[in-house]
Design brief:
123 residues, D-amino Acid Aminotransferase, Chain A, domain 1, alpha+beta, 8 strands
Length: 123
Amino acid sequence: MNLTQRSPIDEVLVDIACGLEPRLSGPAVPARVASLQLVLPPSGTASFDSLELDDPAVVETRLLKPLGSKLASTRHQVDQVATFIACAPSYRETLAAVRRARENLGINGQKLQDDPNNAVLLR
């Protein structure tokens, strides 16, 4: 809600937790569209030493593994090393921003680009 409605979600969650009627505000139609993305390192990567992600549409990035982590594999869902959220004014623009961010995303200085671990279905 914070990103798409420009309305603070924390107040709504506190109201719900306290058994109160949530104070909802903001437009009925989202002001922006957000997309959460999960990141697998390139195939065969042995350690996670750096994440390079610089895109104006990316509003949040989180590491799921600490830098310097040794990676047992890079093939499974549990091998994800990071997440990011991209936002744009429309659904179509958000998908374009996600594609652009993923194409330019790098791990340990290596761009993911067409690595099989970077293939995601966006529609």
